[in-house]
Input
Amino acid sequence: MLLRVGTRGSRLALTQAELAATRLRKPRVEMALVPITTAGDKDRTKPFGEIGARGVFVKELEEALLGGRIDVAVHSAKDMTSTDTSGLAVGAYLARDDPRDALCGVDALRPGMRIGTASVRRRAQLLALEPELSIEPLRGNIDTRLRKRGERGLDAVVLAACGLDRLGLGAEIGHRFDPAEVLPEAGQGALALQVRVGEEQLVAPADDPETRRRVEAERMCVAVVGGGCLAPVAAHHDGHALEALVADEDGRWIERRRGDDPAVLGAELAALVTGRA
Output
């Protein structure tokens, strides 16, 4: 049996696909990685909002799944939309790695620093921590963003700690933000193995139930809020409770709530956004 595993073509994505393939390998099953270019990969200069909503790194992989060109798609769970695409399901979540955001270049924020990130979620929370920062848009894969930090004279860039760790670049990290400082993206740190509905058994043995419990709660909360790449929305389950936030993109206000029910939490935050509109 040949299992075709679809993935983006970046160094990190291929590394993550190899991690997934290792978990899926069993006797008489051959693995073939199938690199696929997504809309987010084709245009590395425009803000995400000009390319499309959340999901710009997954749509082409999902189309390949639906078209029968691959059997499994490996995604960073944080890149997925907050609701499942019709005909597809997450058959497994691998055990979650470090979900935190990482500050690369310095070990603390200070007034006047120039920080690179394309994430409105990170921008809002960084400015709430230190209003005198200069946040500059920065896109590209991990290696590109680390290189551009030096080329553009930025003081630091903010990246997902898990990606740096997976590439052996943990030494680049000066500070890992506690979720109380910067709440992670829903699904951050987790890899999702997506399959066609009815074929979940292809990947089910690799599923980590605790990661699924936490990430599905985060995704549900964000879906209720209605957040995506254009909205500063975050959700993170620490194993005890779910915490979520909405914010102004310049960090002038942030509303955090903590609870057990993602639907209730999401509705509370959605009402707060509506009240400020």
The longest helix spans residues 209-225.
